[in-house]
Amino acid sequence: MLIKVRVFPCAKEEKIIAKNLDSFDVKIKEKPQMGQANRGVIRVLASYFKIPEAKIRIVKGFREPSKIIELINFEKKD
Q: Taking 80 as the threshold, does the pLDDT of residue 45 lie above it?
C-alpha cells in the first residue's frame, strides 16, 4: 500500500494527522539532517500502523517534506 506523507520536522510533539485513507501529516521531533527526519517518520509510522519498521520504505521524496511511502504487506482494515 502506498501513502502520501507530509513531514513537519522539529515539532514539539510527535503526531500523525490522517487527512484521508492514504494521506497523512506527520510531525516529528527530529531535525531534517543526515536522514534523521526520515528515520523518525519511519519510526512514528511503524508505531501508528503497528508494523515493523522494516516493512516501511520511502519510495519518493528522500530530501523533501512531501514523501510517498510504501507499507509492505500491509492490508487496510475496514
A: yes
